[in-house]
Write a structure and sequence with these properties.
Oligomer: heterodimer
Strand content of chain B: 5-15%
Helix content of chain A: over 70%
Strand order of the largest sheet of chain B: 4-5-6-3-7
Structural class of chain B: alpha/beta
Strand content of chain A: under 5%
Shape of chain B: globular
Helix content of chain B: 40-55%
Number of helices of chain B: 20
Shape of chain A: elongated
Number of strands of chain A: 5
Distance between the termini of chain B: 67 Å
Chain lengths: 569, 472
């Protein structure tokens, strides 16, 4: 070794000795020009501090947990890290971030780190582990010549991403939670509006999950009022959205639109982007339900833009899913499928199994609509398995219902009923009234197909009672339409017309255009074929049906209208 | 199936800092006295009040943001009634080593009273042992801390409230375990325990949150499974969290323990890489906003450039270094005096050969308490033990060495920027912010003062040969 280097190194060792003399946390950075520095320093430490334990810790090959475990196991030994450079390789980004984060923990434990790093790599330290670096004790540089004339060997080269869970997942649990929350409201200070607001909001949500819209509305309104009193702008926007959801669930789309619009304005006022995105999405859903697909698409696009700007992958996935429904309703299955596949990728990326299962379910529905029964069943099975895995009861009920319907369409009525009964059981268990109505309606269709009209009618009437009780106007419209079919088959066309007219009036009131085309078609064809002297009236119904269908482009109705071969204007 | 052995829970006490620092009367005692890590609170003999010496920063601003009134006899009162629904969210930004943690420790002590807050301090870097901390993890940690401290303080929560939380968490853990089981990972243990008594319920929830937190420290896949479950239910989680906070607030008032909860979350800035810290403002701010609890977070100074975005959902205050020099270069005597006090409280003045030895250290500290301690620490290691004092030469050598060490972290383009900076400083222009400036802040090459518009070069660096050659 040259005299100059020897002098230099002696100076470094002197400082090192002073730094290590007293106990305490030490983060000592040792830059070297040759890896033999490590052995020199270790030897010196053993000689100078003979009773001190030394622990060699390699970064290479160790993950964060192994490293911290080893540091803990080192106890009072000084920790020597010969390949500290390895910490700063790109693949170890989370490792050095975590190392940096644990600074205070190491400091409290009074760990002594001696970290060896090639002098060319020193610059990584302050940028990669700034907090640990800011507590550095000493920075040293040793200069040793290699034993033979070989190239300097760097130790490390540097080159340099629904029902809510409130109240539990069963009817009994949710009811218990309702009682619990009500007790909490009674026990709380009546002037504590903030607490009252959140408790009422929870109640509203749970009743909504149970399809008890009257109570949901009552508590949601109370939460809304409190938000207004508190001038809690975010609370106001949320409450408006929640009330909108209740109206939506009841099929009162006009009122739902009013409240979603209010929520949108409130969210924009305070720059609440997630709230704005949600409101846009919800408005889109209303237009979609009403068959105003281009309007729906506009709102979904705006919602999607916000979701992407926020980096909110789950919302992006949901919106893509909703958009697919537009294309599906128009029979544009290819486009719908593409959107669902995009949504699926996102769900898998963020490991959102709920959304993944829902998307699989929707893909299954498209395949069914396309007539690919075998594939549809396969995909729906996947959806069901996933939903079972994550305990999504609501989803299980939906998928069982859909699988049941497929078996119904291929004539396997026994299997269809089995699955639909299972679906019904789940819906009863979780208190999903809307779902209960839907499944009963679908069960009735199986009996209708089997020719068991009395049983079908009984079930439809049972469904009607439920739907009227909870205010499910959309469902009620469908059931009234279906009841008319029973009377039609029995030859009681006046009665059939009566039910169809009731269905039409309801569907017109709530703006359910996709539903209206069916009812209008049925009215028209009944007048044309089955009721004397009602031909012109029939034509009027069918004309209106065709007009609306120009916008919605329901393929089934398009084909049916074509078959009728109506006279042109 | 593998079951984890979960360690027995223990009650974590509120006091955070262990005081074992005493004034050094010998050179060998200086190491402990200049401990750069341990913050001090007002009741400690080392505490120095740098009031009105940190540019535009004033404690009263913090109090105003927190809606705390200070009476004439230094009592802190929080009136929860106005703006009930508006909880304070405050980001406390400052350079490393400026004394943020000490300042927050001070607030924790001053504001923890029946007329003010129930302070829950969460040291993220102390307690979250994981390699990819996310905001969700911090929230669960906050909840666990609150439960622990509530138990310590004897807060009597209603059985209904606890039952509601316990059921919700239990359902989540069951869902998580279903996913963990499917992937072959170890499940989170679900003890049944005594759920009939309030104490039993309390312990149960605490156990659940602690185990969830432990689970987050497990393998990456396990942690992601847990996080994903809570994230997918974030709306419900935030509803439950907020309700629990508000109910606890009410009980705190009933028992005259405090008016409301205040979380102080220290160490958030250490948990992420620089680019992730920036992303948090875009992505996690929505979740942060949904939590309705008074919270102070620490924030790295470089995020001050996102100030406009941050102000959309929170308040932000800069905690700058102490200003030792005016722009003209003249020393600010009152700051010098205070920093002398800062040193003399830790190290007996007789351990310095003269006052100028202390002063030269202060001048080159740039107003950073941590840098000042570092200079003295190195000077001590250079001191001759036979003389038994730190001399002016020791201090100068330490300053030179530290300056040269900082210089070696600089790239050629950094020197170019420093040249431009020097011109701007001479002209009295405000210095803006960009990624290069950020890099220099990280390397402690430049220091910020006031609200960040006033920057200057680290005085240690100005002494270095490289700097003098390339810039001066």
């Amino acid at each position: 070794m040259t005299p100059m280097n020897e002098l230099w190194n002696n100076e470094q060792f002197k400082l090192l000795e002073r730094a290590l003399y007293n106990p305490g946390f030490r983060f000592i950075i040792i830059g070297y020009n040759h890896k033999s520095v490590f052995d020199h320093v270790r030897k010196w430490l053993s000689t100078t501090f003979p009773t001190q334990l030394l622990y060699k810790l390699q970064i290479e090959g160790n993950d964060y947990h192994k490293l911290t475990k080893n540091i803990d196991n080192a106890g009072k030994a000084w920790v020597l890290i010969p390949d500290f450079d390895q910490l700063f390789t790109p693949k170890n980004k989370t490792l050095y971030t975590a190392f940096n984060q644990r600074r205070d923990y190491f400091a409290r434990k009074k760990v002594v780190f001696l970290c060896f790093i090639f002098e060319g790599n020193l610059k990584s330290i302050p940028s990669k582990i700034p907090d640990l670096w800011s507590l550095r004790s000493l920075e040293l540089e040793f200069r040793f010549e290699p034993a033979s004339k070989t190239l300097v060997n760097f130790l490390g080269s540097q080159d340099t991403n629904k029902i809510s869970s409130l109240g539990g997942s069963t009817l009994a649990k949710k009811e218990a939670e309702i009682r619990n929350i009500k007790n909490q409201i009674d026990a709380s200070n009546p002037t504590n509006f903030v607490l009252q607001q959140t408790l009422y909001s929870q109640l509203g949500r749970i009743f909504y999950d149970l399809s008890n819209y009257a109570d949901a509305f009552k508590y949601a309104r109370q939460a809304y009022k409190l938000s207004l009193d508190l001038v809690d702008k975010e609370g106001i926007a949320n409450s408006q959205n929640n009330i909108g959801l209740i109206y939506f669930a009841k099929g009162d789309y006009q009122q739902a639109l009013v409240f979603f619009d209010l929520s949108l304005k409130s969210s924009r006022e305070i720059g609440n982007k997630p709230g704005e995105g949600a409101a846009l999405n919800n408005i889109g859903q209303i237009y979609a339900i009403q068959g105003e697909f281009s309007k729906a698409e506009k709102f979904y696009q705006q919602s999607l833009l916000i979701a992407r700007k926020l980096g909110s992958k789950d919302r992006e996935g949901h919106t893509l899913n909703n958009m697919s429904q537009i294309f599906s309703a128009r029979g544009e299955y290819q486009e719908a499928m593409e959107l669902l596949e995009k949504s699926m990728l996102i769900s898998r990326e963020v490991e959102d199994k709920f959304s993944e299962a829902a998307t699989l379910n929707n893909i299954g529905e498209i395949l069914r609509a396309k007539g690919d029964i075998h594939k549809a069943l396969k995909v729906l099975d996947q959806s069901l398995s996933l939903r079972l895995e994550i305990g999504d009861k609501l989803g299980q009920g939906t998928t069982l219902n859909n699988i049941g319907q497929i078996y119904g369409t291929i004539g396997e009525y026994k299997k269809a009923l089995e699955l639909l009964e299972q679906s019904l059981e789940i819906k009863l268990e979780i208190g999903d009234k809307i779902g209960e109505g839907t499944t009963l309606n679908n069960i009735s269709q199986i009996y209708f197909s089997k020719g068991e009209y009395l049983e079908a009618q009984r079930l439809l009437e049972q469904t009607l009672v439920i739907q009227r009780k909870i205010g499910d106007k959309s469902g009620e419209g469908t059931t009234l339409n279906n009841i008319s079919q029973i009377y039609d088959i029995k030859g009681d066309y006046q009665k059939a017309m009566e039910y169809l007219e009731k269905s039409l009036m309801l569907r017109r009131k709530i703006g359910d255009y996709p539903g209206m085309v069916y009812t209008l078609f049925n009215l028209g064809s009944t007048c044309l074929d089955k009721i004397v002297n009602q031909y012109d009236k029939g034509l009027i119904y069918l004309k209106e049906c065709a007009e609306i269908n120009k916008k919605i482009q329901n393929p089934e109705i398009t084909v049916a209208l074509k078959k009728l071969d109506l006279p042109s204007e | 199936m593998i079951f984890l052995k979960i360690p027995k829970l223990w009650n974590v006490k509120c006091s955070i800092f262990v005081f074992n620092m005493k004034i050094a009367t010998r050179l060998s005692e200086i190491d402990a006295a200049v401990d750069k890590f341990t913050p001090v609170t007002p009741d400690h003999p080392f505490y120095t009040n740098f009031k009105n010496l940190r540019g535009d920063f004033h404690e009263r601003r913090v109090m105003r943001i927190l809606n705390v009134e200070t009476t004439s006899n230094r009592k802190y009162i929080f009136d929860y009634r106005p703006n009930q629904s508006n909880k304070t969210l405050l980001f406390f930004a400052g350079m490393r080593g400026s004394g943020k943690t000490s300042e927050l420790a001070k607030y924790a002590k001053l504001l923890h009273s029946p007329d003010c807050f129930f302070v829950v301090t969460c040291n993220v870097d102390e307690d979250l042992d994981m390699d990819n901390v996310q905001y969700m993890d911090i929230l669960i940690f906050q909840l666990e801390r609150l439960l622990n401290l509530s138990a310590d303080a004897g807060i009597k929560l209603d059985k209904g409230i606890l039952s509601s939380m316990q059921k919700w968490f239990e359902e989540r853990v069951k869902e998580i375990n279903t996913s963990l089981k499917a992937s072959g990972s170890a499940e989170i243990e679900l003890n049944t325990g005594n759920l009939t008594s309030i104490t039993g319920l309390f312990s149960h929830i605490l156990g659940l949150t602690a185990r969830v937190k432990t689970g987050l420290s497990g393998s990456r896949e396990r942690a992601e499974t847990i996080r994903t479950n809570f994230k997918n239910r974030f709306l419900d989680f935030s509803t439950k969290f907020n309700t629990f906070i508000e109910q606890t607030n009410e009980q705190l008032r009933r028992q005259n323990i405090a008016r409301e909860i205040l979380f102080i979350v220290d160490g958030l800035e250490k948990t992420m890489s620089a680019d992730t810290r920036r992303r948090i403002i875009l992505e996690e701010s929505n979740r942060i906003r949904q939590i309705k609890a008074n919270t102070i977070f620490t924030l790295p100074i470089e995020l001050m450039k996102e100030e406009q975005r941050i102000r959309n959902f929170s308040e932000i205050i800069t905690f700058p270094f102490i200003k030792v020099k005016e722009r003209s270069g003249a020393l600010i005597e009152v700051a010098m005096e205070k920093l002398r006090e800062f040193i003399i409280k830790r190290i007996d003045r007789t351990l310095f050969d003269k006052v100028e030895t202390i002063d030269i250290a202060i001048e080159h500290s740039g107003g950073s308490p941590r840098q000042l301690l570092r200079i003295i620490e190195l000077a001590n290691w250079r001191a001759d033990e036979t003389i038994g004092k730190i001399t002016y030469n020791n201090m100068e050598d330490a300053i030179d060495e530290l300056g040269n060490k900082i210089a070696r972290y600089l790239e050629p383009e950094d020197f170019e920027l420093l040249k431009a900076l020097k011109q701007d400083l001479i002209a009295g222009n405000p210095i803006g912010f960009n990624s290069q400036i950020q890099g220099l802040l990280e390397k402690e090459v430049i220091f910020e003062y006031n609200d960040g518009t006033y920057k200057c070069v680290n005085p240690l660096l100005e002494r270095s040969k490289l700097y003098m050659h390339n810039v001066s």
